[in-house]
Amino acid sequence: MTIAPQQRLVQQLPAAPFYCPVPPGTHPAAASLNEATVRWMLQQHMDTDEQQRRRLTLCDFGGLTASTMPYGWIEPLTLMARLHAVLFSLDDGLCDESYATAGLLAQETGRIMRAVEAPYSAPSPCESARTAALRSIRLDLARHATPVQLRRWTEAMRVYTSGLVWEASWRSSPGLPSLDDYVTLWMRAIGMAPSTAMIEITGGLTLADEELDDPRIRALTEMAWTLVSWDNDLYSRNKELLRADDDLNLIDVLAQEYGIDALRAQQEAVVMRDRVMVLFMRLRERALRDAGPQLRQYVNGLGQFVRGHLDWASVCPRYTVPGAPAAGPDGWWKRLPAVVDQDPLPLPSISWWWDQLDDGQ
After folding, report:
1. Which DSSP state fits 333?
2. Are 65 and 202 in contact (CB under 8 A)?
3. Which of 177, 260, 295, 332 has its CA 20 to 30 A from that of 169?
4. Side-chain half-sphere CA neighbours of 47 within 13 A
């Protein structure tokens, strides 16, 4: 069933509380990280609109970095905060609010990937300020990352940029993607692939390809991407509707998929999200049983990213919408998940995650 756009876009929703049993943490350099990142961001001239620059200065990139990676070394953490700044600028200025076509995104992401793959090459005459900023980050990463880590981060950027093009193709379409397509699209376009690739670099870890390619670790990594992307949809929907009339969101995709209203779809989204959170905690416990110290740190870093992202979002003014419905009596957090259902979600692209709980794994 396809619901008319005006039916999807009118209803703003109260905040839904989040279940996340991962303990919080924060790096003591949060304030100085943010101050330095804002200063660097403004020097890059990535955004020409003064209102947008003001919005970005309020995002607290230092707080986001410090809460998602409280264990990190300060030099690579600085690059992580800069990466957040560029990804947010890309999201607002080229994806969500500029209505760029898939063709334009393909051109821009192609230039981005060339700058990341070959940062020492001469810049293209068409290179944007955002691409130049990513080139700078990639050059600085070489001082802190091994060749293997740089390769993984570059491939993670490819995952992200391909997701942006896919996202843009749907933004120019009259309808919304299927639920299964949306889940795959958004775990890529959210930018979590290059972010989790930074866990190794900021933590000074040395991990083998075989460790990261273990299906359990791969599933946990994708779950972290997905939880952050769905959490973002749950708390940012009102802002996106207000600023960009944007309904490419888990809630509205669910409303289309099942022919339900937005409030019911939000409830379904919370159930889906909590089922993945429960699976993440169960599979994490099993994966850690036979993991070495550095793999343990990576796996714990995935959970910390999910928790830290929520801690940051709970106070970030970026998502404050005047006149939005008030939060429920439980506030931002809840102690228990909406369900403890252990069956796989009926989504072909991710149902394999649940298979990793088998005792034979």
Report:
1. B
2. no
3. 260
4. 25
